[in-house]
Amino acid sequence: MDTAAADALVRSLEERLEKTGSVTADEPLLAGVDLGTAYIVLVVLNATREPVACAMEFAQVVRDGLVVDYAGAARIVKRLVAQVEERLGRSLEKAAIAVPPGTGPRECATHQHVVEAAGLEVVATLDEPTAANAVLGISDGAIVDIGGGTTGISILEKGKVVYVADEPTGGTHVSLVLAGNYGISFEEAEALKKDPARQKEILPVVKPVLEKMASIIKRHVAGRDVQAVYLVGGTCCLQDMEKVIAKETGLDVCKPANPFLVTPLGIALNCSC
Predict the structure, then answer these.
(1) Rounded to the nearest 5 degrees, what angle is found at the Cα of 206, between the Cα atoms of 203 and 207?
(2) Are 78 and 104 a contacting pair, CB within 8 Å?
(3) pTM
(4) All residues at 6 or more sequence positions from 63 whose CB lies less than 8 Å from its CB, including other chains
(5) Could you read off the pLDDT of 40-96 as tens digits, one per residue?
């Protein structure tokens, strides 16, 4: 994995949250929609696959990888598409989407219908860790996408996905533990989790949840020639959580500079013109 190249690409996407890139009137635009448990993210790339726009909104319309509020999800995606189209001065036409590994056809269709309700044609549907690998570019190892609701795993051998799995443990569980420990609301726990100044303080509190995530990883890679784990997803932004995963699994663990945006960017990279 070229860590520097992956980090540079994600950093360029971070800049597009505030500053919109320029596009021509007729070049094809590639879009990716990530329907996450905590955030819905829309990423747009230009014809040369460089980030030109990114928008996101906090949402609780997806639970454990399943859309539980179709109307709410559709409204948010429409809103994000409208925002980005206004910023670019262009209409979006096509998008790729991703779902947790092992998601059934009916649930995949629901994700697709949400995005289609915003007027976009869904041209690709893939699992989240595989989408992340469009950014990471690894040939061998396990990509672990820990989002708000689930821990998804894709094992690659010689560049091919040979195994996928997904289990319902993620950032929501971290927030629930924080809420119980500090006697605060779930919303306050979400804010606490993201406060850089409190990261070292909360790590021991949520360590049991992280150890459970590590046990999920360890169980699914058992018996396979996996030497390294690559962490992506919003929950992996927690400072030093990778050290807990490494200790519990006994594997080398790599975490990009901003794990949260890796999968949304990878989804857009899988959009075809």
Answers:
(1) 75
(2) no
(3) 0.90
(4) 37, 149, 172
(5) 999 999 999 999 999 999 888 887 677 888 899 999 999 999 999 999 999 999 999
